[in-house]
Design brief:
Blueprint: H1 3-20, H2 37-49, H3 57-77, E1 84-89, H4 99-104, H5 111-120, H6 127-139, E2 142-150, H7 154-163, E3 171-175, H8 184-197, E4 200-207, E5 221-224
Parallel strand pairs: 1-2, 1-4, 2-3, 4-5
Bound molecules: magnesium ion.
Magnesium ion (MG) binds near residues 93, 94, 207 and 209.
Length: about 230
């Protein structure tokens, strides 16, 4: 319908409506279909706190962690002679939760503010991943943390992992300066190739971003955690 005709139809509608009740909402802009940012933030909080209509974040995390644990137990039971099994874990929103900082920042990402939060080393563990981690340790599966955090965050990340209950990992891999401009897929798949090149069989990879999981080599099983809070391409 052309704009002029639409306007005429609305005018007729308006006159008829005013005659009936004098309570009319004018046609809205198409952009009204874009989710409202404040309402989205409320939805995120409700999902995290398990009070909204989108389900329960912790329950969804636990479900994925349980799938990972079940697979790891079965795979370890069928380990071939000489195999060195490896679990690759992302850190942010997979192993450690930055939710307290996200809420405090109103879900905005400010690099300086986020780095200060990281340096405090008080991000809590994601419970399901701690269970998965302990299962891997019991099963003799080597754990590689693979994070997009820069190498300069190593000390704070180690301190946070220990404080959150993670000990005895095989390797903690952070972005070197030469990898700073790589996409997450290129950087992480490259590091997985390096792990495989050392003779490890990556049986399981867990991350909250698709870019944690895509690219070759892939793990035998890749597990995607929910993360409606941010997106890393
Ligand atoms: Mg992450």
């Amino acid at each position: 319908m052309c704009l002029r005709l639409r306007g005429a139809v609305f005018a007729v509608f308006l006159v008829a409506s005013l005659g009936a009740s004098a309570q009319v909402i004018a046609p809205t802009a198409p952009s009204e279909r874009i989710p409202n940012l404040d309402k989205l933030k409320d939805e995120l909080k409700a999902y995290h706190d398990c009070t909204g209509s989108y389900g329960c974040y912790t329950r969804d995390l636990d479900l994925q962690a349980d799938r990972a644990i079940m697979f790891l137990k079965q795979r370890a039971a069928h380990k071939r002679p000489g195999e060195k099994l490896a679990l690759v874990l992302d850190i942010d929103e997979t192993t450690l939760s930055n939710y307290p900082e996200m809420v405090a920042a109103g879900f905005a990402y400010d690099v300086a503010r986020f780095e200060a939060w990281e340096k405090e080393a008080k991000a809590p563990a994601i419970g399901g991943t701690l269970r998965l981690y302990k299962a891997a340790r019991r099963l003799g599966v080597s754990v590689f943390f693979l994070t997009g955090r820069p190498e300069s965050d190593r000390a704070a990340t180690v301190a946070d992992l220990h404080a959150a209950g993670f000990d005895g990992w095989q390797e903690l891999i952070l972005r070197s300066a030469s990898e700073a401009n790589s996409t997450a897929v290129i950087y992480k798949s490259g590091e997985r190739a390096r792990i495989a090149g050392k003779g490890y069989r990556i049986v399981l990879n867990v991350g909250d971003q698709w870019s944690d999981l895509r690219g070759k080599p892939m793990a035998e099983l890749s597990v995607k955690y929910p993360d409606p809070f941010y997106f890393i391409p």
